[in-house]
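#struct-help
A.M.: can someone run this one for me? Single chain, 240 residues.
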Amino acid sequence: MNNVIDTILAHRSIRAFKDTEVSSEQLERIIQAGIAASSSSLMQVVSVIRVTDTNKRKTLAQLAGHQSYVETAAEFLVFCIDYQRHYELNSDIQPDFIELTLIGAIDAGIMAQNCLLAAESIGLGGVYIGGLRNSPSEVDELLGLPQHTAVMFGLCLGVPDQQPELKPRLSPDVIVHENQYQPLDQQKVKEYDQVMQQYYQARSDNTKQQGWSDQVTKKLSKESRPFILDYLNRKGLARR
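D.P.: on it. Structure tokens below:
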């Protein structure tokens, strides 16, 4: 093992932060780490909005589903697909292909993960905020996002004020396939369900009696932000 792998394997989502600033030097290195991430064809189709205005933070916390840590974290970054800069270079570009929207979403995720890993490597913690997509048009207006630019998610960063238990993950035997897709090993999933039940019952807060299978099937058995496609279409993305 090495320090990089140790940092990755120790990842926990942090939702409680100390009243301590992230220094300008720390933030600069975190952003540099994000920008250094892989970019499809070097198109660099991601923009990051650093939100420092307290009123905007409060509003974003509410729009994201009343997640208070959006307001209290030392730093809050919003990651966006951004083809507007390319449009300003040449208005003949065609950013409305679904493939380009996928590229933007993938690159945003890669960049944000670089940022979070960099933050964790220097003793900070964070949590992603997909809840911004609950009200994407309102977020657009608040942050002044132009056409060809769409909000993806936020990232809280700060000095951790909690040490949550490490959440178990599915076994590599379930996730990794060799040469071709393999049928689901139901026994492995049952074993994981038992591990998750024990985890949820034993953790320090928000205990519950639920396995992973029940959790995800309930999540996937209802609508999931059905307005997102219309939002992306209005922004000139994912039309064809």
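A.M.: thanks! The two ends are 45 Å apart (CA to CA).
D.P.: also worth noting: The mean pLDDT is 96.
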